[in-house]
Amino acid sequence: MKKDKNINIAIDGPAGAGKSTIAKMVSKELGYIYVDTGALYRAAALYITENGIADEDIAEELEKADISLRFVDGVQCVYVGDRDVSGLIRTPEISMAASRTSAIPAVRAYLFETQKKIARENNVIMDGRDIGTVVLPDADVKIFLTASAEERANRRYKELLEKPDCPTYEEILSDIIKRDYQDMHRETSPLKQAEDAVLVDTTELDLEQSAQAIVDIIREKTE
After folding, report:
1. Fewest C-beta atoms under 10 Å: which of 58, 67, 196, 219?
2. With contact defined as beta carbons under 8 Å apart, do 104 and 58 qualify?
3. Which domain covers residue 20, as residue numbers?
4. Within a domain: 3
């Protein structure tokens, strides 16, 4: 690996592509810090939703939120102030709210510097919607991770199947298609593949195969 500076890996892609899970696996394999930017945006959405904050007041009110990532017993947890919200930010409602609020410039500005600072100080793997295009445009390696909407919906359905309030496959697919549209058509930092990103389609791959494919790409580009 290069030793003259910290290595930054950017992984972008649509909702449900497995970015977070795969990025965690890759970071463990390579010994990098994993930065879940989606969790930061979900935490902001939770704070905004719970407090009923109007869009015009977000810039001022978010300064009070104190959103951070902390490592507790080796596990990355998301905090708002001193409150661990790691479990609360994974509901379908907060997912949709995060898609909307992440398009608000004040939200992006609030979290932008936090992400940049972490990347400057560490070897990181950072995933999100605009990491390779906006947050880390000079990342050493950029990956655009995707899968078909149908496969992403199928994976999500299997994850939620044991829950009593599990939505139908059709409802999940509809939500994914809607979120894809929102993410790709928002005015601020829309979801798109960076020109120098490597496309990795995991429709036909399992998690281990997907992670290994990315590890191979990173090693090829940084060794």
Report:
1. 196
2. yes
3. 8-216
4. no
Q: pTM for the full model?
A: 0.76
Using DSSP's 3-state secondary structure scheme, residue 29 falls into helix
pLDDT in tens, the chain (223 residues): 444 678 999 999 998 899 989 999 999 999 898 988 889 999 999 999 999 999 999 999 998 998 888 877 777 789 999 999 999 999 889 988 998 898 898 998 899 887 888 888 889 999 988 899 999 999 999 999 999 999 999 999 998 888 888 899 999 999 999 999 999 998 878 899 999 999 999 999 999 999 999 999 999 999 8
Question: Two tokens at 121?
Answer: 């100080």
For residue 192, the number of C-alpha atoms closer than 13 Å in the C-beta half-sphere is: 13
- What lies within 8 Å, CB to CB, of 210 at 6+ separation is 18, 22, 145, 200, 202
DSSP string, 93-128: HHHHHHHHHTTSHHHHHHHHHHHHHHHHHS-EEEEE
**C-alpha to C-alpha distances, 181 to 64, 76, 157, 192, 219, nearest whole angstrom:** 31, 29, 20, 11, 33
Number of separate domains in the chain = 1
Q: How far apart are CA 81 and CA 133, in angstroms?
A: 29
Question: Which CATH number goes with the domain that contains 59?
Answer: 3.40.50.300
Secondary structure (3-state) at 161: coil
Tokens at 10, concatenated: 């950017």
